[in-house]
Design goal:
Layout: H1 11-19, E1 26-30, H2 36-45, E2 49-53, H3 60-70, E3 76-79, E4 82-83, E5 88-95, E6 129-137, E7 149-152, H4 158-163, E8 174-179, H5 191-198, E9 202-207, H6 215-225, E10 236-242
Parallel strand pairs: 1-2, 1-7, 2-3, 4-6, 7-8
Antiparallel strand pairs: 5-6, 8-10, 9-10
Length: 247
């Protein structure tokens, strides 16, 4: 499939971002896997620089291959590190491709297979991750420009990543990320953790599950919170707008 015709994980919110007519000078895709979403977003917004972050070192070769296909006119910078709230060496749970064919679910946290329904093929599946040691950095430690748009898919590490932006988060215009109501990664952040952290500065303006009907996400959350059986809930995407840039 040609890169220029690829469908981005973030297509669902592009028009919402564009209609606000805010300049996207710097863009960060965090948790890239293959670089294709970063390439698509760069073609949409034509930023000065696009920062691509992927923690799993085994995926870097394919990302670079796709960047080369995209052409030299685009200014990409690839960082093979994890973003987090501290500068340190961390354990990363990369996917063992001999056991699982989805390389995109590697994480700083172990996958929770214990909350699956019995009808789920992953019900009580044995671990499909292998532990490796990698470098983790706060975004503020890298000396990069603050991204106007953050696109993030980091499998439970969302809060860790956001904390690493420290005060720079106040200058980010848009954040689009994937999260979940249930604890799909053991010890990882969930929807309400993220929302409470972002709420002082950011407004939730759209979600991939219900469109602009954001109240339904909160209904789902409270229904889950007070349910007796904490079963697996599907991941979903959210789009936040910095209140300072709201019309």
């Amino acid at each position: 499939m040609k890169i220029e015709n690829s469908i981005s994980e973030y297509d669902w919110c592009l028009e919402e971002v564009k209609k606000l007519n805010l300049e996207i000078r710097y863009l960060a895709e965090i948790g890239s896997r293959d670089g294709l979403d970063a390439i698509k977003l760069s073609k949409e917004f034509n930023p000065i620089e696009t920062y691509i972050f992927e923690a799993d070192p085994s995926l870097s070769k394919n990302i670079n291959k796709n960047i080369d296909k995209a052409g030299k006119k685009m200014n990409f910078k690839l960082f093979n590190i994890a973003l987090g709230s501290e500068d340190k060496e961390v354990k990363f749970y990369a996917v063992d491709t001999k056991k699982y064919d989805n390389e995109g679910v590697g994480s700083l946290f172990k996958i929770n297979f214990e909350n699956r329904l019995e009808s789920d093929p992953d019900y009580k599946r044995e671990s499909v991750q292998k532990e490796i040691s990698i470098d983790q950095k706060k975004y503020t430690s890298l000396g990069l420009n603050t991204p106007d748009l953050i696109a993030m898919d980091v499998q439970g590490a969302e809060l860790e990543v956001l904390k690493g932006f420290e005060n720079e988060i106040a200058n980010v215009k848009f954040i689009v990320l994937e999260t979940s109501i249930s604890e799909n990664y053991l010890g990882g952040s969930t929807f309400m953790d993220i929302h409470r952290y972002l709420k002082p500065r950011f407004k939730l303006i759209k979600n991939r599950r219900y469109g602009e009907k954001n109240y339904k996400i909160f209904q789902d959350y409270y229904k889950y919170k007070y349910s007796k059986n904490k079963i697996f809930q599907n991941d979903f995407d959210l789009l936040y707008l910095n209140k300072s840039f709201a019309l």
